[in-house]
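# nightly structure sweep
# worker-07 picked up a monomer target from the shared queue
# config: single-sequence mode, recycle default, output format = structure tokens
# input follows
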Amino acid sequence: ILSYLYFQGDHVLIDEISPKDRLGEFINNETQLMSMSMNKSVTSYILGHAICDGYIGGVDTRINDWPLLSSSLYENQKLIDLLNMRAGDQKYISEWGQNTTGHPLADLQYEYEVNSISTTMNFFFKDTVKSKSTYNYNGFVTQLLFNYIKHKTGADFQKLLDKIFKDKAKIKHSVYFGKDGGSPEHRGNGHPMIRATRFDYLRISKAIMDDYQNDTCVGKYLKEIHKRRMPKGHRVKDEPSFNVGSSSYGGQFHMDYPGLKNRIVFGMGGYGGNKILIDVENSRIVVLNSLHYNNKRFKYRAAYDNL
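# output follows
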């Protein structure tokens, strides 16, 4: 564990960071901590703002106005199905390349993260057909959503980000999102990765909580995706182990955690055990940044103990 923050009400009650003799020389309050899967939830939050600012119709909008998805299983799908990881793409993509269908995306362990949407579509998804809408956690759907937001907002994309992170969340340091530097914008070059400091992760989380509590337009979006969350079902066994625990998924957030029955908790999870849990009704937030989780020797207790 590199950093642990526990926020309640308007105060940080626990603030722990790796000491100098244990990785402390590599981390401080200005260190940009990276995650791709945490950006799944952040992308959803950005999408909520794009909807509220009129760039996108709503969560039931169909993606039928983006040529990059033409003749693929993703064309004309509702955003809510992509948000809930129920795009029907389980025959073609697996988060860890464990697909048994023999599709090249699995066999070659193709790294969609470092390629544009256009490249991935042309290589692997042309003339594909949607299967049954089953929970299939993967990062490519988030990459699609992130680039669709960029497509719909166009030249206003950076303005939208500034509104969210600088004006609302009031981040202290820059928040970085990934980009495939070898591809132009119109090919979908956005990378599903975020870099932010430990306290800026907390500031973003508090902005999410404030929107929910104040019933803003974005708050209504958050309530809608919570209402329309779906059970993970039996496919939860295929989910990365650092995210196992919650039984539902809604709008790119993990929900319904054990031991927190009847509590509305928006969870983010990422590789290495990175975890953010937002108890939106009780004004409690846990932000945990870590390096290792999957090693049997170094697992830690659930991050939601304080909630």
